[in-house]
Structure formats: C-alpha cells, structure tokens
Prior knowledge:
The chain is α+β, with helices and mostly antiparallel strands and 268 residues long. It is built from five helices and 19 strands.
Amino acid sequence: MEQYNTRxxxxxxYRIVGEEMQYVEVELDPNETAIAEAxxxxxxxxxxxxxxxxxxxxxxxxxxxxxxxxxxKRLLTGESLFMTAFTNMAQGKKRVSFxxxxxxxxxxxxxxxxxGRIICQKDSFLCAAKGVNVGIAFQRKLGTGLFGGEGFIxxxxxxxxMAFVHAGGHVFERYLTPGxxxxxxxGCVVAFTQTVDYDIQFVGGIKNSIFGGEGLFFATLRGPxxxxxxxxxxxxxxxxxxxxxxxxxxxxxSILGGLGNMLDGDGY
Length: 268
C-alpha cells in the first residue's frame, strides 16, 4: 500500500558514497532545494542553481527582524550568517553532492522519524533539505555553562526533513533506556535525541586532573533516547597533527633518534 508523507520541508532522496572519505549525493526534483554550510559543496548537475541565502532558508514568514535574529544566533556556534542553497531549476531530477571535511562517516537523520528535533555538535552539520531549521541549543545547567567548552553551545536541527551530519572515525549508535547514564568524552558526542539529558561533570581527584591526560571534564548523557558517538573528534585529530608538526620528530622505535632525522634530511 502506498504511503503519503506530509512533510512541510522539501523532500529529498539521497545516497551516501565511499568508506573513509564519504560524500552524500542528494537528488532534487524540480524546484526542490538543499541547504549546506559553505565549504561542503562537491559537485552538481547542470540545471542546479547555487545561491547564497541569509540564515538557513526556514521560516520565510518571520519578517526581517525574525530572520536577522535567527541567523545571528548561528554566529554563536562559530558559523557564518549565510548558507548556500542549491535549487533544481530544470526539468527532471538533478543531483548535487556534498563531501565530508575529514575521514569519518556521514549520518543521515530523518527528523520526521526523530520527533522533529536533534541536538548535535556545533561543527557537525553538513547539509539538509530546505525548511530544516539550523539553530543553537543552550544548555540550561550551571555545570555545563561553566565547564563545558565543547558542550555549552550545541547545534539543534528542527523540522521534518532530511539532515546530514558528519563525524570522525567510526560512528555508532547507542540507545539509552530510561535513567541509564553514559559517561563520555565531550568531543565524542556527535548527536542525541531531545529526550536525552546532557550535562558536563568534573573529573575528581588530583591524579586524574594532572596525570590522567583525558581532560578535566566529561559529558554525562541520561536516557531515554538515542545517542550517536564518534571515535575520532576533529579536535583530537587536529591536536595530534599540530603537536607532530611543531615538535622535533622522533621515529617510533628508532634507536637513532635525532641522528636518524639528520641522516634522512630532516635535520637541515
């Protein structure tokens, strides 16, 4: 039996291609639009029109002040006031593709099946169907506000369309039962449903604080709800690359050490 959807957002088809460095190919019917952050565009068919828009294109009846306020909140997440809209202006189906910025996985989120709202890391959004609202979610708890550098301001995706977020390394889902608590590194949280309670806790003990090497804070997630978790936060990847490039290189297992670097040309 054929089922009819009652989405208010644009309805787009998609496929995710690749393994470690993925891209998502979105298929647009005539006059359908996908929105994306600047820098995620990869390629598109002829007939797709690319246009910079103010905000995310949702809430067309908000008025000027409403649109300004909505777009302005995005600045708090480190994003631009503007996004890019890709509209099929031709006859027949056309495709536009968006690439992941670093090794990992693209997660498709059908907001209609997720009660219309997802909370995610502020830099994880990749693209979505037009009509999806991309805003911010302030955490209400004092602990989160004071100590959660990565968790104080999260991003929220609202609507009933498809949205796509990107995560680093391997990505997996975990469902938390009512009252079940998961303690996790703040950077490893990709997204969670709106029923999950999120907070930041201090790692107690002077040994943990000084010698632990895992940071002073971790996130606590309390069910019920679904959580998406990544094994390689981009902040962790960036810090490793930065430390490798700004310190003297030492080959693992090498007994020559700095002499070995000089012999292979790195000492000059």
